[in-house]
Design a protein that fits this description.
Blueprint lengths: L63 H11 L6 E5 H13 L6 E4 L6 H8 L3 E4 L3 E3 L2 E3 L2 H10 L2 E7 L11 H10 L5 E5 L21 E6 L11 E5 L2 H10 L7 H10 L2 H25 L5 E4 L6 E6 L2 H10 L5 E2 L9 E5 L3 H12 L3
Helix pairs in contact: 2-3, 4-5, 8-10
Bound molecules: 4'-deoxy-4'-aminopyridoxal-5'-phosphate.
GO molecular function, one term: histidinol-phosphate transaminase activity
Catalytic activity: L-histidinol phosphate + 2-oxoglutarate = 3-(imidazol-4-yl)-2-oxopropyl phosphate + L-glutamate
Cofactor: pyridoxal 5'-phosphate
Length: 363
């Protein structure tokens, strides 16, 4: 049933005024053959610092080899892949392509990743919050309330984060599919899976065939250890990907970053990535278990990501003790609904041991 394509095209969700928008026609758009390239006002000579002479040319906007490697990694078709400057750019493109400024809205579930609301605000789009609910240390997403809010308040996009930042909680793919079915033809369900590699759980990409109003965000910044290369991927229905491509900046991917990413997806690097992921998972579970009994710790939330969210009696004191030892963690007290909480990313085993020994020492 998952493969039966009965759902409506997501093109219906694209802004009316952008449906036949051509975007900027870059010098790399025409697939022309030639020896001498005089169509982009580039320099005919390289810069002295340019090691192989390639930097003088504008880069390929969507290198096919990288698209294919990412499609293989994420188990989808190259035509379902848009590569951008981190998933941050994917979020921004989706908001701009689907939401009319001043009119439409997005739905978020706080506490969550801040960029959904930032992109919406910058674009003049309303943000509807359907907060996660916490009970006995578990974070629950209210899918009924999301569907109601999206339907009654003209939301074009629902942003789900799984595993959630900062909660670490995983959303069931079956619930996401049911939400997508309820919102078909009304809203795009975007599943931000920046941390899914650490979750050992199925990706929502498998839903896209049957639910064309699902899009998934993936990134090389976390598990693949390439945050500086800024390579994020939107995976969605091919027709929607084509619209996003036309909305994207002319040359979004510096060639050096695209080349590094391709190398990083090779066999040896991929094997090492798997080892790092396994280490992070084991370290996370061990750190969470130990922190749960540390003095001043109220709650350690079960995490499926590469960080743990910890609620303290006094987060300021824990933050200060870590900082005094040179360890910088994320203060979450300003996030809605979190109270005295810190988010601690997993480091190397030595770094995690240092965190533990600081927090286990009586203040
Ligand atoms: N989504 C989530 C949930 C994140 O936590 C982050 C990074 N903090 C991003 C997206 C952005 O990642 P990228 O480096 O791919 O832009």
């Amino acid at each position: 049933a998952l493969d039966a394509d009965t759902s409506a095209s997501p093109l219906a969700l694209v802004r009316d005024d952008l449906r036949d928008f051509g975007g900027y026609r870059s010098a790399r758009s025409d697939k022309l053959q030639g020896e001498v390239w005089l169509n982009a006002n580039e320099s005919p000579w390289p810069n002295l610092a340019d090691r192989d002479g390639s930097l003088r040319r504008y880069p390929d906007p969507q290198p096919q080899a990288l698209r294919e490697a990412l499609a293989a990694l994420y188990d989808c078709a190259p035509a379902q892949v848009l590569v951008g400057r981190g998933s941050d750019e994917g979020i921004d493109l989706l908001v701009r392509a689907l939401c009319r400024p001043g009119g439409d809205a997005i739905v978020v579930n706080t506490p969550t990743f801040g960029m959904y609301a930032v992109s919406a605000r910058l674009h003049g789009t309303r943000v509807i919050d359907v907060p996660l609910r916490e009970a006995d240390g578990e974070w629950r997403c209210d899918f009924d309330a999301i569907a109601d809010a999206a339907r009654t308040q003209a939301a074009r996009i629902v942003f789900l984060c799984s595993p959630g930042n900062p909660t670490g909680a995983l959303l069931p793919v079956g619930e996401i599919a049911a939400l997508a079915a309820r919102l078909e033809g009304r809203a795009l369900v975007v599943v931000d899976e920046a941390y899914v590699e650490f979750a050992d759980a199925p990706s929502a990409t498998r839903l896209i065939g049957a639910h064309r109003n699902v899009a998934v965000l993936r990134t090389l910044s976390k598990a693949h250890a390439l945050a500086s290369a800024r390579i994020g991927t939107v995976i969605a229905d091919a027709a929607l990907i084509e619209v996003l491509r036309r909305c994207q900046a002319p040359y979004p991917l510096p060639s050096a970053c695209a080349d590094e990413a391709l190398r990083a997806l090779g066999r040896d690097a991929a094997l090492q990535t798997r080892t790092r992921i396994a280490t992070v998972r084991a370290e996370r579970d061990a750190l969470a278990a130990r922190l749960a009994t540390a003095p001043g710790v109220r709650r350690v939330y079960a995490s499926r990501a590469n960080f743990v969210l910890v609620r303290f009696d006094d987060a300021q004191s824990a933050f200060d003790r870590l900082l005094a030892a040179g360890v910088v963690v994320r203060d979450m007290r300003a996030a809605p609904g979190l109270g005295d909480a810190l988010r601690i990313s997993l480091g190397t085993p030595e770094q995690n041991a240092a965190v533990l020994s600081i927090l286990e020492a009586r203040a």
